[in-house]
Amino acid sequence: MRLISRITDHDFLGGDPIFIDHVSRQASRGVLVDNEFNVAMMFMSQLNLYKLPGGGIEEGEDKQEAFLREIKEETGFDSEILHELGYIEEHKNRNQFMQLSYCFIARVLGHSADTMLTESEIELGMQVRWMHLREAIREMEHSAQRCDDHSTKFMILRDRILLEEASKRLDVGEQNSKEAMYGKYKRL
């Protein structure tokens, strides 16, 4: 997988970037699209912020399985991976925490079922909201303006970078047909 970005405290606080040499957590996340090019965004009503579906890789899972599981748990949809985007490193020196996120584009298969949110996700008022990719990028920019929590700023920047990366791959502004999107990628 290719490196998409390294996010450090420098991105928010200035100064020299500091890179942590050990991985604290591995995660899988990315962009889930439907047949109309809408993106699943996870809205956290208690924070008035958005994020992309995804989370930690559980023991015995590979990165693709973890992403598909997270999509199912958070959105209720079965899905398939269309494209591997790469990975993002989040070096939170202030917290001595480095998260490595493997990033993908997936598409919805079939109808949704009930979500399986964690207690903390329920407390945050997490719910899926569908929107056009450009709108999702704007929402992440608005979320960044509203956020004052240092760790959450990493999540918002990471997810905005992922949406921008997906935008390059999907070329949504140029394509109108489902065949153009789904025919362009080979499944992993």
Name its key features.
188 residues, alpha/beta, Nucleoside Triphosphate Pyrophosphohydrolase, 5-stranded mixed β-sheet, 3-stranded antiparallel β-sheet, 6 helices, globular
Topology:
Layout: E1 3-8, H1 10-13, E2 25-33, E3 38-44, E4 49-51, E5 54-56, H2 63-75, E6 78-92, E7 97-109, H3 119-123, E8 126-132, H4 133-146, H5 150-170, H6 178-184
Parallel strand pairs: 1-6, 2-7
Antiparallel strand pairs: 2-5, 3-4, 3-8, 6-7
CATH architecture: Alpha-Beta Complex
As laid out across the biggest beta sheet, the strand order is 1-6-7-2-5
Count of structural domains: 1
Approximate strand percentage: 25-35%
Shape: globular
Protein name: NUDIX domain-containing protein
Keywords: Hydrolase
Family: Belongs to the Nudix hydrolase family.
Cofactor: Mg(2+)
Overall description:
Belongs to the Nudix hydrolase family. InterPro entries: Nudix_hydrolase, NUDIX_hydrolase-like_dom_sf, NUDIX_hydrolase_CS, NUDIX_hydrolase_dom. This is NUDIX domain-containing protein. Keywords: Hydrolase. By secondary structure, the protein is α/β, with parallel strands linked by helices. It has a single domain (3-171), classed as Nucleoside Triphosphate Pyrophosphohydrolase. The protein has helices at residues 10-13, 63-75, 119-123, 133-146, 150-170, 178-184; strands at 3-8, 25-33, 38-44, 49-51, 54-56, 78-92, 97-109, 126-132. The strands form two sheets. It has a five-stranded mixed sheet, with helices on both faces. A hairpin with a 4-residue loop joins strand 3 and strand 4. The protein is globular, with a radius of gyration of 16 Å. It starts with a strand and ends with a helix.
